[in-house]
Amino acid sequence: MQSLPLFHRIAGQPVILLGEGDAAEAKQRLIERAGGVIYRDINAGIDDGARLAFVAHDNPAMAEGDAIRLRCAGLLVNVVDRPELCDFTTPSILDRDPVLIAVGTGGASAGLAKILRLRLERLLPQGLGALARALEDARDGMRQRWSTVADRRRALDAALDEGGDLDLFRAGSEAKVGTWLASGEEGQSGHFEIVLTSNDPEDLTLRTARLLGQADVVVHDAEVAPEILARARADAVRMPMGSMTNESGVIVVLRIG
To answer: N or C terminus of the chain: which is more exposed, having fewer CB within 10 Å?
Structure first.
């Protein structure tokens, strides 16, 4: 990855916005949608503790000058249509509050990000946010039912997966959280050996991709490509072939065929 995707909380916080015109208005709508308080004056924004700034000047020299000034004051800066001057870029956003899906291209093509977001809009149900809120309300019950983080994660993986009790693509899943909590499955665990036919992530089977996403431990040949290992959870333990592990849960062993 060339960028680290983060969700920045700005509700009630000062955000500097410089410039006029359509681009500035688009940034204004984005900031206001997230609850930020817009400052048009650099000094006032800095004095009140702004951490983010958007620059939308039509004049390239003015945009670069303000970007440098803001960055020297310790702010993270976004300059419209100037990715080389940006500390961060703004993604195309799919909103299923409280679920947000952000599609970014690192400034390479806003049009591509938009089309990807529109495709996802057609795929993801409107009830996704309601499902997220129902799961949030069920946190205490999940802790009582499954005592460890790993057990809760595996149970939730099984429930949300295709065909699961809370299949996120199935309408009405949010109404089934209580029933699932009372009688849902414990989730998958075990030792799985997979022989890869290539080092191309595009060649992964659906089963292999799913197991990598659920794995607690990934044991792998030295020849397995980093692009394959990146498909595993970020917090999954990775270790070379021949290592010993006392970890439980989903253990995936990857070999190159």
So the answer is: N
